[in-house]
Every structure is written in C-alpha cells, then in structure tokens.
Design brief:
about 290 residues; Rossmann fold; 9-stranded mixed sheet; 8 helices; about 40% helix
Length: about 290
Amino acid sequence: MKITLKKDLTPKANVAAVIYGQAKIGKTTLCGKGEKTLLFDLERGARRSQATGAIAEEIESLEKLMEFIKQDSTFDNYVFDTGEALIELIGQDAKRENPRLLSPAMALKYYGAVNDRLKDFVFWAKNFNKNILVICHTKENEKADTFKIEPRFGSANNNNLMLSAFDCVGLIQMNGKDRILTFNPTENNLCGNSLNIQDVKLTIEMDIWDIFKKAKDEEANKSLENSIVKSDILEKLKTCETKEFFDNIVENIKECGLSSDADIRKAAMDVRQGLANSRNKTQKPNHLRR
C-alpha cells in the first residue's frame, strides 16, 4: 500500500468533469472543440452543434469503447454526450454480466452496479492519460427544500454518487443575455470546483479545454510557489537564534497560509523550545549554573 502525504501530492494531471445546462445553451459546442478532442455522440446531437473536434457514433458497448481507448494515441480529451446515454451504455454492460439486474425489483442493486462501473471506467480512462468530460441536461430536484438544478445523470436517489467520480461539475446558465459557466456550488445547484475555476462569461469561440488547462496551470504554479516559500521558511527556522527573528518568521508563515503545514509546525515548535531553553539558562542564578 502506497501512502502519500497531502504536502507531497502533485496537481491533477488529468481532469474528469461534468458540464450540464438546459437544451440548446451550447454545451456540446463548448466541450467538443480541439484537434485532440473526440466527442462520443451517444444521442446523435453533435451534428446540430458547432463542435470542431472529431465525432464518434454508433458506439456498440462499453467493452468496445474500452478496447478503442486502449489503442487510441490520437486523442487526449473524451467527451460523452450525454450522461444519461453513458449510464445506459454502462447499464447494458452490467445487465449482460448479471441478468438478474434486469428485474425491476433489483433497481437499487442495478444503480449500485452502474455507479461502481462508472467510477471504475473514469479512473481507468484517466490512467490512460485521458481527460473525461460528460455533458448532461438539467433537471429540477423536487425533493430539495429549495429550488435546485442538478445534472440529469443516474437516478434521483444516487445522482450524488454518480458525480463523486468527477473532479469538477459545472453549470451553464443564462444571466440576462449572457451565458455563464460556474463550477461554484450553491444551494441552488450541484456543482463542484476542485480546480478553483472562476465563473466564466462564455462566447461561441471558447473551448472548455482551454479553461481547464488554464486552471491546471494555475494550480501547478501555486503548488510550485508554495513549495519554494515553504523551503525558504524552513531554512530561516534552521538559522533562527532570536525571539524577534522567530516572531517575524511566524508572521510570514501566517501570511503565506502555511500555519497548518506539519513540517513547518514541527520546525517552529523546535525553534520555540530551543529559544525557551536558552532563555531559562540565562535566567538561572550564577550559583546554580554548571
């Protein structure tokens, strides 16, 4: 078993995301761009979009899809349009393997099996160095206490479980005449924003993969900057010999948001204890010193 500390984790190399929004709002056009993008058109709607990437149609089964991915060296980005159709494809695979899942009485076990397969598939595809994006329509959650828009992805009971396989969940909505893409969760949506992407005012020319690349580059730069700052602080702590200098370092630690870092906390405690021991020695009466 491999154990990695949070401080040693590197930024995500690949992204798995869901983009959802109402019909005709431009989801497929936004997501289906780029020479390295392959759009799996599971509902035959891509031809009505302005997507510029390659389009795959007539996907027979999840097994055939995975065979293709194993051999594919052309595309980096896979887009599945739509989430409902992807779940259906995965569900067919589950029912072939376990025919008992065809029974309506096995609905809960069926969606449990589909959820497990979805997670396994997303993880498996990312290990092949692929970005995964699923396009979904919207639905209103009638069970929520407040008005809430969610992706149409899986059943009403396990929508959250389906989405747990993904790093980001974004919603496209109209704000006046503007289309706004947000990944920030609110009480009225079911979004997720592990890449800290700011709300984006969309234009027809925009490409979702450019948005993700910018976010990942910023995440990597932030990780590098934090690493450099942390190393600098640890070096200062090693050479700290006065309380005044230590207090300045502590302020620097707070400003950089590294107060909870385990390495820095331990080093700071060692310095604090060392300074306290030195102060106690200097305060002893002469006849008690040895």
